[in-house]
Amino acid sequence: xxxxxxxxxxxxxxxxxxxxxxxxxxxxxxxxxxxxxxxxxxxxxxxxxxxxxxxxxxxxxxxxxxxxxxxxxxxxxxxxxxxxxxxxxxxxxxxxxxxxxxxxxxxxxxxxxxxxxxxxxxxxxxxxxxxxxxxxxxxxxxxxxxxxxxxxxxxxxxxxxxxxxxxxxxxxxxxxxxxxxxxxxxxxxxxxxxxxxxxxxxxxxxxxxxxxxxxxxxxxxxxxxxxxxxxxxxxxxxxxxxxxxxxxxxxxxxxxxxxxxxxxxxxxxxxxxxxxxxxxxxxxxxxxxxxxxxxxxxx
Length: 299
Known about the structure:
alpha/beta; 5-stranded parallel β-sheet; two-stranded antiparallel sheet; 50% helix
């Protein structure tokens, strides 16, 4: 049986410990770049995953991540950013990492084999949820068990792995195989495979945010402005979208209680009540709401 791609050993001539500093670092950078390039071959699958995520979060479902080890850390990095970036309520996002999120830098390896813990995750799933399961190898027992049981709970499954024809991918509604090269440090999937997995998650969640109307002209119009930097960013977004100065934008944000989308409409001349009604009528999408407001003003 051939060795999985994620476990293959580089040629002796390219082994990191045989190279000088510049060559070793260049080799690692090249492998990371090739790992990123693997995403170019799965854009259809990434879009299908984003469609599932957007449908779940636009309805009553949740976005659930499940993984172990470094794949779990990649999932954590994506999940933790979604409330602030796209205003997704925290109770609509769940992260399940084998052994729990490490609090002190210790991440035991044996927890990835704990299928009992996986069954507990399955018991918490409900119809309408989307579960993103990750495993570089595609064979890790914890996420694989969750992938194999999620459908019976009414959830849809997106699987991301770096080896083809693996149990994790076989259990998915959307299977994303990232054909990353052998690692520069053999078997260290925190490197190229981890980079590719994190990028895939970022692409899926950002594309889902676009589908839900949380991106306008490349800006985060549903962000949660909970610090000074983000409050300044929110005011800048309102000013650019509505074509007003910073003072008008700040007043509009105050009237909208900090919510960027209605603030854009208020700055453009809507009352708060009209702003919310227009957004409701257009599924939370700002562009058609602005168009409708302009039509009202021109009438």
